[in-house]
TrEMBL record:
Belongs to the peptidase S1 family. CLIP subfamily. This is Serine protease snake-like. Keywords: Disulfide bond, Glycoprotein, Hydrolase, Protease, Serine protease, Signal. It comes from Trichoplusia ni (Cabbage looper). The keyword Glycoprotein applies.
């Protein structure tokens, strides 16, 4: 198994209990229905933005309106409206316990239309919009239950609900977990082609979805079997080109607050200068595996530098880096603790166009540094290059 070197940043997230066992896909807010504000846990009413004077007052205090998810198409922006402005009631210390994703869900509107023409990957983009709605509904249900019961906002929600831990071996209790992946639909997990197989253990057989801690015992419903491994047809090991694969799950993936797909980068302009890699890798050379999922900030490395750092190498990289299908991300030159993370996991950013959704830019492929060194970027499979292939299998 090829491991990849990472810079570790601990993600301090406690394992919260599962509140939403499945997702009621029929759940929508209607005009005039009740809502609960996440920040103050007080009931309000779903009204049109234009009709709610108090949200406009709150906006002056930087409190963005909380949306009510609807199943209408364009034009109906319902917000959770309170009789009085809420800004004075908010306990700002509560916000410290929210992740970026939580904040995003609290405040951002749904976008149902692309803001610009999509060069390719129309289907992937449409599915991303659909998943966004499902995702927002799941959050809404979750928050309603938590807040209604407890009256506080202490639950820490999952930050990377598309993360998958891949297991190898026939017997789950003896399986080895050596790669990561990403949920991209209710059937498919995206990973690296080299992750289809782990020397000495065999083919990938399990996908554990919706966990945060590598050693937590997953609920039965979180363990999926791999029904089919579809590596890219041009992946020819030991060559490292086209290191991308799709895993078909043995049953439909149930989305909830802990399990949600991520979107694919379809090639539109994005702010990709900084991205996050995630995985349960080694915490450093001769150190143990990460227990809690790690989130590693990485910086884009220019194509020229990437090509220069990985010169042509024997049968593995005979043509050097192919910048159309591979890319480099690395450290910012600051000394940090370095470590290895699992291959196959995502390199991602938060979408600025479809809010609250992650966009997968790359699949973690390989690196050459030893832990403790800085200055060597890692190589990621460039996802936008493979969108037509992915679409042909995942959303035919
Ligand atoms: C969702 O939209 C359909 C028609 O498009 C409508 O029949 C249904 O009542 C709506 N559901 C809710 C909960 O608003
Ligand atoms: C935030 O989380 C920490 C750790 O779980 C907890 O000790 C603290 O009380 C929480 N803060 C608030 C304001 O809920
Ligand atoms: C899997 O391993 C466990 C523990 O060694 C054993 O009890 C169980 O029978 C095995 N299951 C199968 C299907 O081989
Ligand atoms: C690297 O090259 C690819 C295509 O060959 C291009 O799409 C991408 O924008 C380039 N990246 C940078 C950072 O210049």
């Amino acid at each position: 198994m090829l491991f990849f070197m990472f810079f570790c940043v601990f993600l301090a997230v406690s394992v919260d209990c599962r509140v939403v066992p499945g997702l009621n896909l029929d759940y929508f807010s209607e005009y005039g229905s009740n809502c609960v504000n996440y920040l103050i846990a007080e009931p309000g009413v779903c009204l049109k933005y234009e009709e709610c004077e108090t949200v406009k007052v709150d906006e002056k205090f930087n409190i963005k309106p909380q949306i009510c998810p609807t199943n209408e198409t364009l034009g109906l922006n319902l917000v959770c409206c309170h009789e009085k402005p809420i800004h004075a009631k908010i306990d700002y210390s509560l916000l410290d316990n929210y992740t970026d994703v939580d904040i995003c869900f609290i405040s951002q509107p749904i976008y149902r239309e692309p803001k610009e023409p999509i060069p390719r990957g129309k289907r992937a983009w449409e599915m991303c919009l659909e998943y966004q709605e499902v995702s927002i509904k799941a959050r809404q249900l979750h928050e309603l239950k938590v807040l209604a019961g407890v009256g506080g906002v202490n639950a820490r929600l999952r930050e990377f609900p598309h993360m998958v831990l891949l297991g190898y071996g026939k017997n789950f209790s003896k399986a080895e977990f050596n790669c990561g992946g990403s949920v991209i639909s209710d059937r498919y997990v995206l990973t690296a082609a080299h992750c289809r197989y782990s020397p000495g253990v065999g083919f990938v057989t399990f996908a554990v979805i919706g966990i945060l801690d590598r050693y937590e015992t997953p609920a039965e419903q979180d363990i999926y079997g791999v029904k089919k491994i579809i590596k890219h047809p041009m992946y020819k090991p030991p060559k490292k080109y086209h290191d991308i694969a799709l895993l078909e799950m043995d049953r439909r993936v149930i989305f909830d607050i802990h399990v949600m797909p991520a979107c694919l980068h379809v090639g539109d302009p994005v702010d990709d200068s900084e991205a996050y890699a995630t995985g349960w890798g080694y915490l450093g050379q001769a150190k143990e595996l990460a227990t809690v999922l790690q989130k590693i900030p990485l910086w884009q490395v220019s194509n020229d530098t990437c090509i220069q750092k990985f010169s042509p190498y024997r049968r593995h990289l005979p043509n050097g880096i192919d910048d159309a299908s591979q890319m480099c991300y690395g450290d910012d030159g600051e000394p940090r603790d370095t470590c290895e993370g699992d291959s196959g996991g995502p390199l991602q950013i938060m979408s600025k166009k479809i809010y609250c959704m992650y966009v997968i830019l790359g699949v973690t492929s390989f690196g050459i540094t030893a832990c403790g060194e800085i200055g060597y970027p890692g190589v990621y499979t460039r996802v936008s290059n493979y969108v037509p292939w992915i679409e042909s299998i995942v959303w035919p």
